[in-house]
Model the fold of this input.
Amino acid sequence: MSDVYAFHLMAKIRQSIRKQLESLSEDQRNVVPAGFNNSIHWQLGHMVTLADMVICGIAGKQFSLPESYKTFFAPGTKPADWTAEPPAWDGLLQLFDEQPSRLREDFAAILDEPVALKENFGQAETIEELVYLSNVHESSHAGMVNAMVRILNKQ
Done:
């Protein structure tokens, strides 16, 4: 597989999610629908944060976002536990839109290199596998966003 496809897929997944986000009002972004633990705001921040944690972190590179993002959006977090104001929606949306290009710029030339953290939850062995692992993660969240948007737009 080529780096073109791995990052193209990431951009396509995000474009699909982005279309769904556009249908929401500002108030809807922070609602936690019944049956869910998180809001759309959390979903957006989580996808941005996890892409960096998975690709950069497991590859052994520097986390490029502020450390506070992990406090708000790492696995196991939820808005009910936030004790401070999370990163703003517009900033997260900008990162969401720009991150695939930045990751491609940083990693496309080294996709065949081995990961730094051999013991990782996805058992990824190369940086390219990390990109696909991140894409799988975001695809699952695309489903969550889809469900949440449907519920929120029916309220």
